[in-house]
Specification:
With 151 residues, the chain is an all-alpha fold. The protein folds into 2 domains: 1-44, no CATH class; 46-150, no CATH class. It is 79% helix and 0% strand. It is built from 8 helices and no strands. The chain has helices at residues 2-8, 10-44, 47-53, 60-72, 81-89, 94-103, 111-118, 120-150. Helix 6 (94-103) runs antiparallel to helix 8.
Length: 151
Amino acid sequence: MYILTYFLKPEVVIPSLKFFWNILKKLIPLFILILILMILINYFATPEKIKKYIGHKTSLRSWLVAIVAGILSTGPIYMWYPMLKELRNKGVGNGFVATFLYNRAVKIPLIPMIVFYFGLKYTIILTIVMIIFSVIQGIIIEKIMEVKKWK
């Protein structure tokens, strides 16, 4: 469309391309930071390491690992389902799985973009609220599943 428009009305396309270039120059450092973060996350946060650190009983450490693992997890969610099923089969509570899944919404690669567009204060508040509600959701899921076991 831009090529066609350029030949028909170049005076409309040139300001648009200049605007795009100015935004791209501001975002390139963020893209480099995101690339570095994703490489580090993929290297250090493997499913095997996550399994190792989530315990079978409720503890602060288990909740923290579920939160951090959810935040650090990358890739399509369906790739995590087999690992999550295996964790549940080994006795990890449904609440930890729910907390893990909820925290996948906190994307480290997107944090610089959120800060860029909405500001640091908004980003911090949003992230904290999402983390707190992930634990609340995990606890609610645990309670619901306990009630279902008794029926």
